[in-house]
Design brief:
The protein is built from six helices and no strands. It has 124 residues and is mainly α. It has a domain of 65 residues: Helix Hairpins (Orthogonal Bundle). It is found in: Mitochondrion intermembrane space. It comes from Liparis tanakae (Tanaka's snailfish). Keywords: Disulfide bond, Mitochondrion, Oxidoreductase, Protein transport, Redox-active center, Translocation, Transport.
Length: 124
């Protein structure tokens, strides 16, 4: 097994070393085959935007990982919830991030100081 550390992720023949500790065990477990498919596709990609043809493979891997949250914690869940929470208050107050909504951006461009509250009240 010491050859894993010596060989690295890519073997001398160009193959992926699925036993490399750098993969953190992703190649095994319930989603190992999906991980291998996605990683192999990306590794072998010849597209100008490397891996652009592998989106379905990565989607399959992500869907598998979502079925096993105890094994594959989702950092995106935390990011998505933190992004969703400020969005609602921002729409109500108009102070956090007005350019994110089309109506607020249009109102800001028309009359940045007085028009947005008046338009918001009229639209409600």
């Amino acid at each position: 097994m010491s050859y894993c550390k010596q060989e690295g992720l890519i073997l001398p023949n160009g193959d992926i070393n699925w036993n490399c500790p750098c993969l953190g065990g992703m190649a095994s477990g319930p989603c190992g085959s999906q991980f291998k498919d996605a990683f192999s596709c990306f590794h072998n990609s010849k597209e100008e935007l490397k891996g652009s043809e592998c989106i379905d493979n990565f989607r399959d891997m992500q869907e598998c990982m979502q079925r096993y949250p105890e094994l594959y914690p989702q950092d995106e869940d935390k990011d998505a919830s933190s992004q969703a929470e400020p969005a609602d208050p921002a729409e109500g107050s108009g102070s956090a991030s007005p350019p994110e909504t089309d109506s607020t951006a249009a109102e800001s461009a028309a009359a940045p100081d007085s028009a947005p509250p008046t338009d918001d009240q009229a639209a409600s």
